[in-house]
Write a structure and sequence with these properties.
Blueprint (H helix, E strand, L loop, with lengths): L10 H8 L7 H13 L3 H21 L4 E5 L9 H8 L4 E6 L2 H5 L12 E6 L5 H8 L10 E5 L11 H10 L6 E7 L5 H13 L9 H6 L5 E2 L28 E7 L2
Parallel strand pairs: 1-2, 1-4, 2-3, 4-5
Antiparallel strand pairs: 5-7, 6-7
The chain binds S-adenosylmethionine.
């Protein structure tokens, strides 16, 4: 296993700190505090993002999806995706994937699902879609619809690494009736704070590739957006989950959407 590097902050561990988890290090907390100094609502944003994942997963399972490929899973935080999907459909099959060794270290928590369903964990990088497809095919039937969930992931993948092409490649393997689920941070709402955050993270070795509404929407080219389309995450099917305290106290600087492959 690759060693856990505690000399610089990592997105998975900073996110865990925002969510009040314990699987983070002083270096993650220090950078998290710098992000809070720029915008004290960062922990609310993390919860709003997590709650979007819950509602989108619930919506998909209720609409018949039984297979999920979740890339950029993060450190386990209950309820995890499988715990939402398998409440609706006990036989749901889930493949989780992340490239951070700390997620692998805690992956056991992702593997405790229903007897009827399956959960599996792949240690892989989204920039290596072929490895992910090969691994996922051991567990999922790519002849049947799969929900590809890339939640709060692609703002860590710059255009130089081919973010849009990676999504095309992954979707090209999935049959009609599959879905793409995404959230993504954007500088559209708070440009100055976003620029400062990007610079601070860059200095600490973390790439943040914020994208505009138009750049985000381009990930869904050729797909059918589920109503209400591209939205700020907490306004996407709010009836499917509890509101996050503080979500209406200002803008959530990002977008979320779900779309079907025709
Ligand atoms: C902000 S967390 C989001 C976790 C979860 N998807 C959620 O929304 O609650 C981003 C996750 O993406 C992972 N990640 C970042 N770059 C990645 C890459 N190139 N390949 C795979 N995972 C990556 C990080 O390790 C982290 O766990």
């Amino acid at each position: 296993m690759t060693e856990i590097d505690t000399s610089k902050p990592h997105p998975a561990r900073m996110y865990d700190w925002y969510l009040g988890g314990k699987d983070n290090y002083p270096v993650d907390e220090a950078m998290g505090q710098q992000m809070l100094a720029l915008d004290p609502r960062v922990p609310v944003m993390a919860r709003v993002n997590r709650a979007f994942m819950h509602r989108a997963t619930r919506w998909l399972a209720k609409n018949g999806v039984r297979q999920f490929l979740d890339i950029g899973t993060g450190i386990p935080t209950e309820p995890n995706l499988h715990q939402i999907a398998q409440v609706v459909a006990a036989d749901a099959r889930i493949v989780y994937c992340d490239n951070d060794p700390i997620v692998l270290a805690h992956a056991a928590a992702l593997l405790r699902g229903t007897e009827e369903g399956v959960t599996e964990y792949l240690q892989a990088d989204v920039r290596d879609p072929d490895a992910i497809i090969e691994g996922a095919k051991q567990v999922l039937d790519f002849g049947r619809p799969v929900a590809l969930s890339l939640v709060a992931l692609l703002h860590f993948v710059p255009d130089e690494d081919g973010a849009h092409e990676l999504v095309r490649r992954l979707l090209s393997e999935l049959p009609s009736g599959s879905y793409l689920v995404m959230t993504h941070a954007s500088a559209d709402f708070t440009p100055e704070e976003s620029k400062a955050a990007t610079e601070k993270l860059k200095a600490a070795g973390v790439t943040l590739a914020l994208r505009s509404r138009e750049e985000f929407t381009r990930f869904f080219d050729g797909l059918e957006l589920v109503e209400p389309g591209v939205e700020v995450p907490h306004r996407w099917h709010p009836e499917l989950g509890e509101p996050v305290p503080g979500q209406d106290d200002g803008v959530i600087p990002g977008y979320g959407a779900v779309a079907r492959k025709p």
